[in-house]
Amino acid sequence: MQRYRGPFGPRQAERLLWRAGFGPLRGQAPAFAALGLEGAVAALTRVTGPARLVGPEPVTELGEPIDPARFPYDHLVWLDRMVRSDQPFLERLALLFHDWFGVSDELVGSWPLMREHVDLFRRVGRGSFRDLLLAVTGDGAMLVRLDGDDNQRGRPNENYARELMELYALGPDRGAYTERDVREAARGLTGYASSYHPDRGYEDFRFDPARHDDGEKELFARRDRYRPEAVVDACVAHPLHPSFFVLKLWSAFVAVPPSDGQRRALERLYVERDHAVLPVVEAILMHPAVYEGPALVKPPAVYAAGMLRALGRGIESIGWPEVGRQAGQRLFQPPSIAGWREDRWLDTATWRARWQLAHLALKGHELGADEGYLAEETPEQAVAMALRHWDDPPIAADTAAALVTAAARMARVVGLSPSARNALRQDVLRHLLVTAPDCQVC
Question: What is the pTM of this model?
Answer without folding.
Answer: 0.96
